[in-house]
Amino acid sequence: MKVCLIQIQMMNKALSFVLVSLFFCCGLNSQAQNKLVHHDFELELKGEYRYFYNDAAFDGQHDHFPSFAIQPEYYVDWNNGNESFNVRGFFRVDKDDARTHFDIREFYYLKANNNWELSIGAKKVFWGVTESNHLVDIINQTDQVESFDGEEKLGQPMVQFSWIVQNIGTFDFFYLPYHRKRTFGGEKARLRFPILIDKDFIGYESGAKQWHQDFAVRWKHYFGIFDVGFSHFYGNGREPVFSFNSDGTINAFYPVINQTGLDFQITHDAFLWKLESIYRTSDALNFFAMAAGLEYTFSNIDGNGLDIGLLTEYNYDERDELALSSLQNDLFIGSRIAFNDTQDTSILFGGIVDLDSNSKVFSLEGSRRFGNSWTAQVEARILKEIDQSELILSNFKQDSFLRVSISKFF
Amino acid sequence: MKTLIILLFTVMFASALVAQNASERGLEIAQKAEEADLGFGSSTVELKMTLKNKNGQVSERSLFTKTLELIEDGDKSLIIFNSPRDVKGTSTLTYTHKVGADDQWLYLPSIKRVKRISSNNKSGPFVGSEFAYEDLSSPEIEKYTYRFLEENGDLLLVEQDPVDPKSGYTRRIVSYNKNLGYRIEQIEFYDRKNALLKTLTYSDYKLYKEKFWRASTMRMVNHQTNKETILNFNNYNFEANLTDDDFSQVALQRAGK
Lengths: 410, 257
Prior knowledge:
heterodimer; A: Porin; 2 domains; 18-stranded antiparallel barrel; 3-stranded mixed beta sheet; 7% helix; B: alpha+beta; outer membrane lipoprotein receptor (LolB), chain A; 3 helices; 13 strands; globular
């Protein structure tokens, strides 16, 4: 009987110990709420196949390009999400040796405090409003071998300070200590010049080379239906300047540039009116370029969520045939279809026509989710009636292609 | 004949009076509901969205929402997607206006782009769900005209006609609970042809800060397609003390990573 009582007393003590510990833990937890650390790891695996269905223009070029990419991502934040550390890597294996590459897309520490934010490390920043061309966007180098539309970028080392002033707008200041070179396709690659361009052979105008210290500033604000951004960049240009010698060889280097940019959008009912414009100066070349257009969306037209957007944009570039984008006097017309279904099915298609030479590039991009963690994309780029006078594009006239890719997210 | 005309006028006058009373009472109820919710300041909440199609197949999304109460103008809100994984980090920032179009920005984390988007699309579905954009925007008095219908126990039924011609509805019938802070118990939505389209039921209410009722579950059933969407709200936090700084475009990008 006595033994039994002691046992019960011991059990009681154990129980109270558990209860007290639980209470203590909970109490501690709620006290520590502000110091709570969140972290998350995500991984995307991407299988891809590109098929160029026309005969190659240059020796050594292939038609079929199976490829595989991995994109791991990790972030940790604390201090109510006001401090964080962000990492994103990218690795691709491709038949084209130049397209097999590794990049640190992001690797930065961020601190936010009410009306300012500071980032230190490698990061990606986007500026601009138009769809067919991204003129104003200059902070990051384009990952040229990764995508046709140039929207994939290399991580850029920087210190970024954002300062938000109520009713005046956001001021972004950038210190960019290191320049990254653009990569061009290797021997097997399509969408290249007849002569292989090794990125190491492209030099710099500046004696400091890639260590030239670059700076940029941008002001961005909105007034009712108007969104406006005004920016200036000084430093190593992201686009190399090419000159073609009579013997077929190419001279190329990265000039030191000043670029002033304006981006502007009016959002009125279902209309988006867009304008981007830059003026770039350097010892080699001064020029003006712009893209302007509009987007109109017919929304929920079937009462089931179907949205059809119509887009048109005009592109002008004073560099004429030297414009790397080949968008020197070109009209883009396209349509964006979003089904707004549970699989987020969407299609973007359109064409760009050169108003001087009549060269045309047609595009189609579609995407859809399967289940909760798979997505599939298709892409087609069809180059038609490419004129010999197109200094850049004429090299790619045999390079129409189809691409399918499937991604799995973990 | 004269008597008849007088009678007719009397009837017309009386019914006009009743109509006016009905609209005044309807407005009054909506105002009381708004007043009951005044002063929450700011809140954050986790949201699980379950979409069911007519065959019972289910897909899920999880979101995080921040709201800042504004008195002079409509509320500000930030919505961040956590799943599905391929859209993780996609976020929207909305400045609701009592009158006129809302201001809205979308952040796409894969290309780090902030896009100003049109808030013109009121009637379209939000991410494939049975909730239209207008069902999820902050409820402002000025967005409807009102007509009191009937009192049914604790419930006050008010018909609300959207002012915006772009709304997908001719009317909604909202049931307010007069004894529980005028919280909404149910909304019936009638489409442009005035046929019953959807019913939204609020349940698992909890009282926060002894003043603010928040439903933990909202179930939207589409009677025409037999699809439904269930929203589960978790971890309401009314102590976040958010300010305008948490609803800037810089904050939008930070939230989406």
